[in-house]
């Protein structure tokens, strides 16, 4: 098994987010592409990764290979990469995986392939009252502003757009709208409001680096879904449980 990804920064971003959620994870390399699923330590959030083989510069996988790793250690390996360097992952022995960072100064690391139990995923059948496409940079800025003054981010949506609001003594509000150019389109079944942890959103907001726009979907007192799609058809989906009460 050997795959090459053109820009290591995307993987670095994903593993950085993953390291805040779990200690260990497993990448599934299948003939058609890679997959990863992880539930955070508190079982409050879920991350799902799916990259088709077309996402890669080189993709040679004849049969499924699982690469189990310590998230903090792999992040340290990827942190040695510079801008636009290539990532190569290879395995000829099920017990270990070789990670190469190819650039001006090629680097090679041999990692033990650890046995990681698959997460017990809840059976979710979600229907959302709000579905919107927003600029990633605008959503990131909104979360950062609210998180700086509040432990909760209140999402409120109507036909005019989506508002991110603080909860508590400090008042802050960021509006995503078509007029401002931060909202591309929105579908609403009914006006909706729901609260989510600003800490959890702050931990994953760097995923906005993956694409210029993102999908936001939620309903009152139901999970928030953030979806980031790449041009080659890859996706990272993040689900976060609401804060109730």
Automatic annotation (TrEMBL):
GO terms for biological process: leading strand elongation; regulation of DNA replication. Transmembrane segments: none annotated. NCBIfam families: pcna, PRK01115.1-3. It comes from the Archaea. The gene is pcn. Residues 11-98 form the Proliferating cell nuclear antigen PCNA N-terminal domain. Keywords: DNA replication, DNA-binding. Sliding clamp subunit that acts as a moving platform for DNA processing. Responsible for tethering the catalytic subunit of DNA polymerase and other proteins to DNA during high-speed replication. Sliding clamp subunit. Responsible for tethering the catalytic subunit of DNA polymerase to DNA during high-speed replication. Residues 126-242 form the Proliferating cell nuclear antigen PCNA C-terminal domain. It comes from Candidatus Aramenus sulfurataquae. GO terms for molecular function: DNA binding; DNA polymerase processivity factor activity. Belongs to the PCNA family. The keyword DNA-binding applies. Homotrimer. The subunits circularize to form a toroid; DNA passes through its center. Replication factor C (RFC) is required to load the toroid on the DNA. SUPFAM superfamilies: DNA clamp (SSF55979). The keyword Disulfide bond does not apply. This is DNA polymerase sliding clamp. It holds the Pfam family PCNA_C.
